[in-house]
Design brief:
two-stranded antiparallel sheet, six-stranded mixed barrel, alpha+beta
Amino acid sequence: MSWLMIFRIAGLALMRNKMRSFLTMLGIIIGVSTVITMLALGTGTQNSIQSSIANLGTNTITISAWSIQQGGARSGAYGNSRLTIEDAEAIKSSIPGLTKVSPVTQTSAQVIFQEQNWNTTVMGCSPDYRDIANWELTRGRFISDEDVRGRLKVCILGATVAEELFPNVNPVGQSVRINKTPVRVIGVLLAKGESGFGMSQDDTILVPYTTAMYRLFSLRNIRNIQCSAKDKDSVDTCVEEITSLMRVRHRLHDGDEDDFRVRTQAELASMMDESTKTFTLFLGGIASVSLLVGGIGIMNIMLVSVTERIREIGIRMALGARGSDILRQFLIESLMLSLVGGLLGVAFSFGLTSLGTRFMAMEMQISPSSIIMAFVFSATVGVFFGLYPAVQASKLDPIQALRHE
């Protein structure tokens, strides 16, 4: 028999039982669409995190307080509070490869305006922080050197805070209370959305770091120091110089562990990239189980089909069909079920990713490689699980098959 004839007979056999064929394909449809959608979710998450990190600048360096050891016991991350304004000033004056340096404090507080109130993060920073964090304003102005020197009670609202406290009012010029202290609003930040780590970048208030430390929260130390290098090539040199300077300033001897941590955006991006790749593979692996379930469904239905068509197989063998012809027919039927199911699954996955993008506020991206992988996998499942029923059909004895009732 020609291959064309075998495909035609296989197609007619599947069309005779349309509902059963569709239900058989359903497992493949669900499996393929799930695999592609899960991989699209992982890719979308990875791109979102990379975009958020890129918004902070590839030349950004962060110096954070880290653990210390006292009496044999080690504190956890951020377990000491030895970072000071003087550290930030020393770094700014001593490291020529840096263009911007800002001390940063961070505290949660209840912010009140008339009848409205909102709990948010209050960050203390310097004018350099605007360029380091790549912040833009929709209203007003940013923190100035005069605000820092005078410890002025001024603030800039993030987009979320402005919307919650001032739904129908221009916030600039208004006064809010932070930790019971009146603070004048001088600007509103442009909305940035989520950071890629599931945290809103807009739910924040910026104030001069001197105001945060001495007039709002009575802080003695800062949380971290944000820096920006001249270019990507000078980042590593700046990190080495910052590390040496900080060890001298904190009087650390040879063999002593650093009580601070210096990190770059490139290091953070690499770490997050590895994490999201693992997350994506994990999602794809879980989703692939549904394809195996679909393949088992194909094998069950094909075994039932062989049992129902024993007499037909006997007649065809009596008319000259060989066992290899019967094998190819049932194998092609199984392959057609998986391929058509794979195509429908790919189409269905585009609908799922579109809905996911709309409701998750994150762009889920389908890559061509995920489509090819899912499609090839579905075809492999069809051949693998269809092989056993096909072999069983090809081994039937023609005489016994003709006598079958």
